[in-house]
Amino acid sequence: KIVKRKMPMLICVFLVFTHSVPFLEGCKSKPSTTTTTTTTTTTTTTTVYSPTFVTDPRKFVVYEGNNITLPCNVDELGGLQILWERANTTLALGDTVYEDDENRVHVENTENGSTIVIREAEEKDAGEYVCKVSAAELKHTVQIIVRPEVEPVPKSGLVTVKEGEPATLACNITRGNNKPYINWELESGYPLFWFDLSNTIPEARRWSSGVYRCKASNGWPEPATAEIRLEVQHTPILSLTPSLDYTRYWTELMLMCSITASPLATVEWYKDGQMIEVEEDVTTGEEQVTHRLHLKEMGQGYRNDNETWVLDQDRLGLYECRARNMMGEASRAMEIISSCDRDGQVQCFKRVKEIEKLVPAQLVNNTEVNNDEED
Predict the structure, then answer these.
(1) φ and ψ at 363, to 5 degrees?
(2) What are the CA-CA distances from residue 237 to residues 48, 96, 231 (Å)?
(3) Longest Cα separation, the chain
(4) N or C: the chain end with fewer CB closer than 10 Å?
(5) 53-101 pLDDT per residue, tens
(6) CA-CA distances (angstroms) from residue 11 to 4, 16, 19, 21, 140?
(7) Minimal CA–CA distance to 334: which of 315, 357, 350?
(8) How many CA atoms lie within 13 A of 116 on its CB side?
(9) What number of other Cβ atoms are within 10 A of residue 121's Cβ?
(10) Which residues have C-beta within 8 Å of that of residue 143, sequence separation ≥ 6?
(11) Is the torsion defined by CA of 336, 338, 339, 340 positive or negative?
(12) pLDDT in tens, 134-164
């Protein structure tokens, strides 16, 4: 009986213990759980093939009108195309040409390179040309030499001043690249060591007259030239020269009056102060004009044995050549004093002091000096 009583109690205790386990578990603190996520980033590097240029960058100097030829070669093109640019403008890509309204651009492609040709170069074609292959660049510089041109000032090419006045000789550059430099020379080629566009002779003299050349050079094969003719107006300058022509029966005396004058002078012949009519015999040279007076039968020739012949005394006297222009008047004279026989022992003529009548009066001294120089 006692045993029977204890058995239920044991069972109860067991049950209590059994049901108390969940209860106790529920009173415990719950553990914390942390979740870690790992992200892996993959970087892909793409290598762009860039060939190496075997052509060096250069400066090309091209004359206007010639062709511009620019090469661009690489070690291995590898199927890439070559791009040509100028001033950020595409000229050609591969075989295709762009911006060529005048049909002057041509591209010649090879296995590993390209050559661009621009025909009949113009001034506007100067600049920097870029050859691009992938990320690589090659730059060429092109300089165009443009034919220079100059013009005289004034455009007529004639400068006229009075003796003693300043004379300015000038020219203008109307065309040319590079900028031309200037030098001057005489018509003979004698250098003047003038290097400006405008040059002034402070006091022009008659010997300053002539052709002056303004030359412009900029590397073009031939310089441009403008000619300016300077005319210094002055009183006439004269020389009077006798010449004897002995013929078979008679002797002819010819008086040659050579005149340098600007402007041209009118010429008159006088005998003993009276104007005479003469047969015109004039020769015009580059610097002077020669008037001739023929005096026939002024003496006996080498076969004339007429012992009774004598020279008419009216043929003797003072023969004068006068030249006149707007600057003044000058004169030369020769006196015939006897017959001009071939076998004569005495000279038949003699020089006399020239008669000078000048306008304006202030030029008298200059003319006297000039005439003395001619003597």
Answers:
(1) -90, 0
(2) 89, 76, 15
(3) 225
(4) N
(5) 999 999 999 999 999 999 999 999 988 999 999 999 999 999 999 977 7
(6) 12, 9, 12, 16, 109
(7) 350
(8) 30
(9) 21
(10) 59, 60, 61, 62, 126, 178
(11) negative
(12) 889 999 999 999 999 999 999 999 999 999 9
- SS in 3 state form for the chain? CHHHHHHHHHHHHHHHHHHHHHHHHHHCCCCCCCCCCCCCCCCCCCCCCCCCECCCCCEEEEECCCCEEEEEEECCCCCCCCEEEECCEEEEECCEECCCCCCCEEEEEECCEEEEEECCCCHHHCEEEEEEECCEEEEEEEEEEEEEEEEEECCCCEEEEECCCCEEEEEEEEEEECCCEEEEEECCCCECCCCCCEEEECCCCHHHCEEEEEEEECCCCCCEEEEEEEEEEEEEEEEEEEEEEECCCEEEEEEEEEEEEECCCEEEEEECCEEECCCCCEEECCCCEEEEEEEEEEEECCCCCCCCCCCCHHHCEEEEEEEEECCEEEEEEEEECCCCCCCCCCCCEEEECCCCECCCHHHHHHHHHHHHHHC
- In degrees, rounded to 5, the angle at the alpha carbon of residue 115 between the alpha carbons of residues 112 and 118 is 165
Name 302's bridge partners: none
Q: Which two tokens stand for residue 288?
A: 């002077």
Q: Minimal CA–CA distance to 153: which of 212, 232, 222? A: 212
Name the pTM for this structure: 0.67
The amino acid sitting at 94 is G
Read off the tokens for 302: 């080498």
